[in-house]
Amino acid sequence: xxxxxxxxxxxxxxxxxxxxxxxxxxxxxxxxxxxxxxxxxxxxxxxxxxxxxxxxxxxxxxxxxxxxxxxxxxxxxxxxxxxxxxxxxxxxxxxxxxxxxxxxxxxxxxxxxxxxxxxxxxxxxxxxxx
Length: 130
What we know:
mainly alpha; 2 domains; disordered N terminus
């Protein structure tokens, strides 16, 4: 059987990975195929990275960035709504205001670059049509 070593036993780390994947795939609604897909995915990982030590980043920066964008999007300036945001994301009001300011500043910095790209694309398009 795929994934078994000479002793006939699947390595513990790979078995844990397979179980973890199968459980999550079942939760996603994959049903009876979850076990088969989990084993296939585990085998792909084993074949590609087997024998190597790999670092898997937590992705905390991405999580915080997504949270910050959601906070800014739901921010209205209303104190009651701000309290709800604080509670939902476990933040202080001061932190919410800093997040909103940071996200808006980042957008303002990107805006000129986006406008320049759109202008260049429009000019390029108009040259092609003439």
